Amino acid sequence: MSTVLRVGVIGAGHFGRYHALKIRDVPHEVLSGLFDPDTARAAQIAREAGCPVMPDVQALLAVSDAVVVAAPAEYHFDLAVQALRAGRHVLIEKPVAATLEQADDLIALARESGLVCQVGHLLRYSAEHAAITQRMTRPLYIEATRIAPYKQRGTDVSVILDLMIHDLDLVMAVVDSPIAQVDALGAAVSSAHEDIANARVRFENGCVATITASRISLKTERRMRLFSQEGYLSADFVKRELTMIGRERGLPLPGTDGFRREHMTWKEQDSLFAEHAAFVASCLHGAPVVVDAQAGRRALAAALAVTGGIAAARARMELSGLIQPD
């Protein structure tokens, strides 16, 4: 069995560059090459990362054991299928695919081939994810906010697939129950897709989550609050601070009949390094895939349900005369 994983990167954009540079730092992972149809951009990133530029995907696959698919989302499925059919492991940036049918095909192809198909939900490898999931296991209500100033990057998809999908994935990892109903609103402001969205997600076990995402805000804010019989948890992901009011952790709160208050902070963790280290462990040693294609499908299904909810809400507003059709 090989002790080195040769990894190629497809896509020299924002995330493709990060992946190419990070691979150099991960033990047992070697950057085999990079491909992007924008040859000038590919040459620039390849020089920075110290790897060869490949003329096409087939040439990259020929010198690689695995590939990172960091191309625009519309190409994720075709590129991942090409890699899996060539016998190569894949790490696909989120979203896993454009449709649930495509995600199902990837799940089946990875299962049939015995290859790793990992999805780049980076938050799963973060310190904040661990801090929350270790403290909350049966939430009743979750409120999540993820807003940021406008950037051109990511506008090839909606804010739901760009930003909200992170919180949808984290929420579903904590709740661990199928979605029963979604009500949502959203609007396109600076791009062709929704730039701001709000969703109220009700799960079959009764838990409710309210999630807001925006990429047209004046400031950056990333927060999550969770209520349960275990207590109350508030996390500020920008400040990297967490407060938990419960009965098991922290200092006693006088006059509260046994409740305790825990306040903790965490250092910024290199989540991308952790993601690649997990990918190497799965490809070389058969370790369980932390975020596999099935998990990617679950997050995609939630994002598409939010998108459908926004379309349904807009149709009702147009029918009532509240807004005018485009």
Distance between the termini: 58 Å
Q: Treating each run of at least 4 consecutive H or I residues as one helix, how many helices?
A: 9
Largest sheet: 9 strands, mixed
Mean of all residue-level pLDDT scores = 93
* Low-pLDDT residue intervals, each spanning 5 or more residues: none
What's the arrangement of strands in the largest beta sheet?
Answer: 7-8-9-6-10-11-12-14-13
Query: Would you list the SSEs in sequence order as H and E?
Result: EHEHHEHEHEHEHEEEEEEEEHH
The count of β-strands is: 14
Radius of gyration: 21 Å
Query: What structural category arises from helix and sheet content?
Result: alpha/beta
Helix content: 25-40%
- Overall body shape: globular
In percent terms, what proportion of residues is strand?
A: 25-35%
